[in-house]
C-alpha cells in the first residue's frame, strides 16, 4: 500500500510536470491533484500495515491502546496547529476549491504524520540500525512535505511566486527522504 501511495504521488507529479514543461502552464488545482490526494489514504493505510506487520513479527511495538493514545494526542496537537496555520489560508478571498485544496495538503500531511511517528517510536530502540534509519528518512520526507505544503499555501495566498524555487527545493528533499527511506525498507526485506 505504501508503494501504491508513492506511485500515485509520482503519477500526480508527472501530470503536473507535463502541464508545466510541455504546455507551459501550471493550473491549480490540476488533474494531478486527484492523484496526489489519492496517495494519502494509501500511504496512511500502508504505514498502519507496517505497524501491524511489526507486531505480527514479534517486535516490541506497544499495545494498540498505547498507539491509540499517541494517535489521539498527536491528532489533537496537529488539529490545533492546523487550525492556527491554515485559518488564514482559508479566510483569503479567491476560489473556494483552490483554498480547500491548498489547506487539504497540510491537513493530509498531519494525518500521515501520526502513523509515521508511531513507526519511528517503534524503531527507536533500534537507533543506529536499518529499521530506525528507514523510518527516520520517511519521517524527514513527510515533515519536509508538510513544510513545503504549508509554505506553498502561504506563498500562494501572499502572491509570492518568486519563492517558488524554495518550495520546489523543499519538495525535492521530501521526495528524496521518502525514496531513501522506502529503499532502505526494501533493502531490509531483501536481506
Radius of gyration: 17 Å
Low-confidence stretches: none
Strand residues, percent: under 5%
Shape: globular
How would you spell out the order of helices and strands?
Answer: HHHHHH
User: How many individual helices?
Assistant: 6
Task: Explain this structure.
By secondary structure, the protein is mostly helical. It has a domain at 58-190. 83% of the residues lie in helices and 0% in strands. The protein is globular, with a radius of gyration of 17 Å.
Quick structural summary:
By secondary structure, the chain is mainly alpha-helical. 83% of the residues lie in helices and 0% in strands.
Helix and strand layout, with pairings?
Blueprint lengths: L1 H21 L9 H25 L7 H28 L4 H28 L6 H29 L5 H27 L1
Helix pairs in contact: 1-2, 2-4, 3-4, 3-5, 4-5, 5-6
